[in-house]
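Module 6 notes. Inverse folding takes a fixed backbone as the condition and produces residue identities as the prediction. Think of it as a translation problem where the source language is geometry and the target language is the twenty amino acids. Below is one complete input and output pair. Work through it position by position during the lab.
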């Protein structure tokens, strides 16, 4: 497993039986990844359960000594995370290059 893994998230991240994001995060951590970059570019909606999943993933990654980073937040998603004061807790970057640079990496994760 790579030290840093990028998870591409798309569509609606809301409460319900479809837990693709949660499953992807869990599988990535179980496989031994240290850092997770969440590419949020194609997310169209994020509700409170999705925010909860992001915060829980952040805590899990930090416990392992890694970093959990959000990339490519739309203005709407950034506003939701700012209003809920989650953006102050989660690390975010405008693009993948900036996130990789923050991790000291230069290539594709």
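Target side of the pair, the amino acids:
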């Amino acid at each position: 497993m790579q030290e840093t893994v990028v998870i591409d998230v798309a569509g609606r991240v809301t409460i319900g039986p479809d837990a693709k994001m949660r499953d992807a995060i869990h599988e990535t951590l179980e496989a031994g990844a240290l850092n997770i970059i969440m590419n949020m570019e194609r997310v169209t909606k994020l509700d409170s359960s999705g925010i909860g999943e992001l915060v829980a993933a952040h805590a899990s990654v930090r416990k392992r000594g890694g970093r959990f980073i959000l990339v490519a937040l739309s203005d709407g998603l950034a506003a939701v995370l700012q209003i809920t004061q989650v953006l102050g807790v989660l690390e975010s970057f405008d693009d993948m290059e900036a996130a990789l640079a923050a991790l000291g990496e230069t290539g594709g994760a």
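Reference fact for the lab report: Strands lie at 4-13, 35-46, 68-71, 91-93.
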